[in-house]
Amino acid sequence: MVFTKYKDDLSYELSELLNSAEKVITIKKGSYLFQEGQPAKEMYIVLSGKVQISKTNAEGNELSLRLCSSNDIVGELTLFTQDPRYIFNAKVIENGEVAVMNLQDLERALFKNAKLAAEFLKWMNDHIRKTVTKFRDLVLNGKKGALYSTLIRLCHSYGVVREDGIQINIPLTNQDLANFCGTARESVSRMLADLRKANVISVNKKIITVHNIDFIKKEIDCENCPIEFCNIE
Fold first, then answer.
1. Which residues fall within 8 angstroms of residue 146, CB to CB, at 6 or more apart?
2. How far apart, in whole angstroms, are the C-alpha atoms of residue 118 and residue 51?
3. CA 73, 123, 36 angle in degrees (round to 5)?
4. H/E element holding 171?
5. What is the pLDDT of residue 172?
6. Residue-wise DSSP of 215-228
7. What is the pTM of this model?
8. Per-residue pLDDT for 72 more than 50?
9. Worst-scoring range by mean pLDDT, 78-82, 143-147, 176-180, 183-187?
10. Cβ distance 111 to 103 under 8 Å?
């Protein structure tokens, strides 16, 4: 099935994947596409809106892994597994639409179409590299490094360059940032306060402006990875 109203905005590989979609559904803020542990039968392409991918630990704390928006694939890690189950949560944080693909149908399509399979593997490799670099920051750089690298990634994904710095153009609470960092909200609040006092950032109605991104990069010995891997998406 082809959904022509979306095709012009999609890359070749996503356009081909969309051919395997069964339907388009409306997604509402606060709902879930799936939650970890549930049997996995479908994969999704986000056409509009935003979906947050997260993992919950044994204590019930949430670690936000990425924000998915237009043209992003969700639920892909369940492909080609026996008794597939979702390993993450996919929560809708902005109304929109997603294309729904049956996993078994998609697997058959990948087997039949070598070019599509190659493009999908390339996409998966890029996604894994993004995930590995994020976990590297979280594990090796401690709480401060986790927050600072998250701010850099948010600037790359949602930053708007202004005269006074880079404005992260999505509202973020201290708890949102804590979830991305895998740490307590109180720790994030203290670190943000220190950055505000040093005029490195400012916050206005949950919108963060980074005035000195070079300071943040220097503090964590930023390797200046390509932006396509150093982002929050």
1. 137, 138, 180, 181, 182, 183
2. 26
3. 40
4. none
5. 92
6. HHHHHTT-----TT
7. 0.72
8. yes
9. 78-82
10. no
